[in-house]
Amino acid sequence: MRMFVPLVLAALISLVFSACATTSPSGYNSDVPLPLDLKIVPPNSSVPAEYTGFSGKWEGRWDNTLNHILVVEEIKGSNAVVVVYAWGRAPSWFIDPGWGRAKGQFKDNELILNLPNGAVVTYRLNNGVLASEYDRGRYFARATMKRSG
Questions:
Q1: 84 forms bridges with which residues in the sheet?
Q2: Which of 12, 41, 102, 108 is the most buried (most CB within 10 A)?
Q3: 59-82: average pLDDT
Q4: Where are the domains of the chain?
Q5: Is residue 99 a contact partner of residue 80, using CB atoms and an 8 Å limit?
Q6: Inter-residue contact 102 to 113 (CB < 8 Å)
């Protein structure tokens, strides 16, 4: 009986972590965890048209090394954007998977996030693709994000 409890607990933990991960058609972001309470709220009619295209789930890879998912959950206005910023594993960069919610704002038709680690991430929507830049001083990366799911 004592052996059964740890096995059940291990199975439950594994199930929870696998439920947090997402799989994309490209296979890029299978190692990127997402929150279970993820919810995309369609922009209402008061949101300018140039911002509504950002809404939804996007996937890409920073410098062809680190898988990344951006989910624009809600656009309340130009200065009130709620996103989930998630990343996968990049052993060569000493990065483990994770995610966090952040607030963003639009400036000059770009979505800008100021992450808790000091990074500034900029997304530009052009022809249905997000051109993305991650800038944290000496750490700089680029990604092309495509809409997914």
A1: 71, 101
A2: 102
A3: 95
A4: 4-148
A5: no
A6: yes
Interval 72-95: pLDDT, tens: 999 998 889 999 999 999 999 999
Q: 74 or 27, which is more confident? A: 74
Cβ–Cβ < 8 Å for 103, 118: no
Six-digit token string for 22: 């997402």
Q: Is the pLDDT of residue 26 over 80?
A: no
pLDDT, tens digit, 9 for 90 and up, residues 121-144: 999 999 999 999 999 999 999 999
Determine the Cα–Cα distance for residues 104 and 111; give it in Å rounded to an integer: 7
Nearest to 39 by CA among 63, 78, 73: 73
Structure tokens at 19: 């439920």
How remote is the C-alpha of 99 from its chain's centroid? Answer: 7
Q: Which fold has domain 4-148?
A: Lipocalin (2.40.128)
